[in-house]
Specification:
Helix content: 55-70%
Strand content: under 5%
Structural class: mainly alpha
Radius of gyration: 33 Å
Distance between the termini: 69 Å
Largest sheet: 2 strands, antiparallel
Protein name: HEAT repeat domain-containing protein
Shape: flat
Number of strands: 2
Length: about 600
Amino acid sequence: MSTTLLQELQGELRRLYIAGSDLAADDFRLKRLEPKLEQLGERAPVFKKLAEGVAALTGPSEPEARAVRLQDVSLLLNSVLSTQGATAAETQVVTEREKDNELPELTTMHSYRQLAEVQNALSESGGGRYEIVTSAYEQGLFRDLRLFPFAMKALGDSYSEIADFAARNILPSYGRAIVPYLLSEMDIQGGREEERRLQVVRELGVDPDDAQSLKRLVHAAEEGADKIRSAAIACLGPHPAYEERLLEWSQDKKKAVREGALRALAVCNSEAARDRLYDAFKGKDALLAAEAIGYAPSAEMIDMLLPLFEERLRKEDAGEVDKKAKEKQWSELEPFLTAFEYARHPDLERLYLDLAGNQSAYPALGRLHGGDCIRILRHAATYLENTDTDEALDVLKRLEEQDPIYLPYAFHASKRRLTPAELYDQYVGSGWGRLKTVVSKKSQRAQKALLDTLRDELYSYQGYVRIRLPQEQIEAEWDPRWLDWLIERDDLQLVSALAAPGNPRLLPYIERTMEKANHHEAHYIFTSLDACDADGDTKFELLMKWMERKDWKRTYSMYEEESERLLRVPDHKAAEGADRLEALLKDVRYDSLKEKLEEIIHALRRRAASV
């Protein structure tokens, strides 16, 4: 007899044991099973009894009686299932128990209510699922054992952002213990899902004593589809026993196989592996080798490549510098940027200091397209920005003087080494103070670069949402004169970022700006208002003016922030707020917006009546 229906019923009953038997009333999932049980009940009375039990469980009942009915149905169901189940061999039982024990840090401490939304998001399609999954990850819900199968399943989600997020964040958080699970369920002829699976394996690494997992990896490396072969080979780098195979694969005719082997050799980092990578770097696989080294940049490998990089940068060439020559020059230098992207090495620092500070000593820069030359100098500036030495800062300042495009690097490095007042004086108070009056193209570019750099410093992103720094951090780390400078430049977004109490120009600026601000700038207006010295009545008045200046005939929605602020007006202003909002209703064209305003008006009137 097929037990599919019984297993499904058991799953639903288990859900109710976790969520609570009260939720069984009119439960649509149980009701969906009831007709199927009744149909089977025509042939076997036990199914009829189960159908009656489900009907009683979902029908009207007192809480205690419903809990008893849940127990009754479960007891009968388990009795039926126990007569249908197969007995596993002892070795299989032991294997399953061992697997359970391999994830000892996972718990079942969260309620089913917390997990159900995530399980649904990873079982269905449609919008809004990414936010649910990322939020659950941030809350630590995936530490619950019951979400582990859904996390595995997410690797093949139809929405690639969810699948990539699972491969990049969720599954690596479980640790190396999940590697056997990942490999045991792998389809070596599969597609992107299996690549993601191996991506996680590569990041976590395979236990050297786990012979079964290594055997599966080698099988995939030899027999899998090309991309699976590449990804599986790349996982073998930490295992010296496979070095000879990796060297052999690095010469394979297929590019995907060579790519995987070079990645593994970069991790292997033996002398033979480095020699092979060096040869590939100088040949047709230069970019493949560069990407492999960039993933795992060893000091020994950087030692080998740096002389070649410097030699190519200093190389004199008397030939014609046409488009073809420039592209050839770039193709020789680009792989070094990829290989050194995450490398830190004292000789690399020395080279970048000299390159950025003494560019004429490197003729190859002059034979590049302008954009490619800037890419190399930006690469050097990025390295030096994180070096945090006086010498590096001095070179960055010279680059900044050369072209405002390098201003962000000097600014970030300066901010770490200067006090807030010194930073302001350097960029506005003395040197860059002339930006207010000088109108040359270079000064305009410099001012724009400074404003963009401030935006990067003052805001961070959580997903797609721009987040302002905490008020205490702003007041501690930023000189208050920045706010005046930004008010003069009428940059509402940055004024909002640095708004703080004690500036007499802030409130008049908000009042002026409010007259011309558009609908989407509401958040910056309100954030500035929160931070200034205005009293509650003044803030109320400005909030109502903001609402009254809207073109309600063309407005079809309100920001949640606006609704919340209206509901929080002072008690003694609640009646006035309701009156003024009610006067706007006549112009509102959209029913949903009108209903929203009426709800707010009603809430304000109730509050006014209770005062």
